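Reading a protein record of the kind used here takes little practice once its layout is understood. The reader may check this reading against the record printed directly beneath this paragraph.
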Amino acid sequence: MTYTGWIIMTASLVGLSCGIIGVFLILRKMAMMADAISHTVLLGIVTAYLVTKELSGIHMLVGAIIAGLLTAFMVQWLHTLGVQEHASLGIVFTTLFAIGVILIATSVGNAHLDVKHALMGEITFIPWERMALPVIGEVPKATALLALIVMFVTFCIVAFYKEWKITTFDPALAASLGIPVVFMHYLFMCLVSVTTVASFDAVGAIMVVAMLITPAASAYLWTDRLSIMLLLSGSFGVIAAIAGYYIAAFMDTSISGSMAFATGLVFLFSFLFSPKHGLFASRGKLLKGNLKF
């Protein structure tokens, strides 16, 4: 596959994994948690580097998972103490992210890890070291990792589909049925953290947030069925990744930024033309309701 092909493939895997996870973030009204975790994982990554002195490996995922769980736990803890949830998110998000920034500035040194790289990202600049896989051949490590994450996320969603569905729409009913609601919540936070850090180095926090929220919000306008919403959201993430690449090529600008912009275009199209909740469909129904014969 060509260099361009690998870029599009890698970005599409980011869009697919983030799109699937994003559906539950939207339905659980936790969209801002995506923004918080996508930034606080920086602390986990920096801490993992300080311990191991390596910028790649499983320890990065472990550090990100711990940071994501710490974020979710601290937000929930402050909320139980009477702090409003959105205020809890703001407090935890800014504090943990600031600690990560301070550690980068004071302790990381000359390693290829900086705040601008973490926030903005640029898929063309990531290391493209290859690894050999049976049958497939040599593939970039970043692409292989993201493919593994997609399979892991898909497996978890399918294996616990009933539990995700009930705990998302009616946590009280789930608890009465014996479903471990708290465990499912923190398992979900693990999935968000793993997905975020796998995408983090390739595309940066801004595109991760865009891919986690916007495709799912777009899919929500098209259907009320969870299974269809998952398929649509993942597809919208892939479409945005492909379209964003060609927008960047045409305008000679940032690929990651263009892909994030493309998610906005997908949402705009959905907002206007969705047959279920689109603006034009709603106006049409209103006009029909006002017509008198």
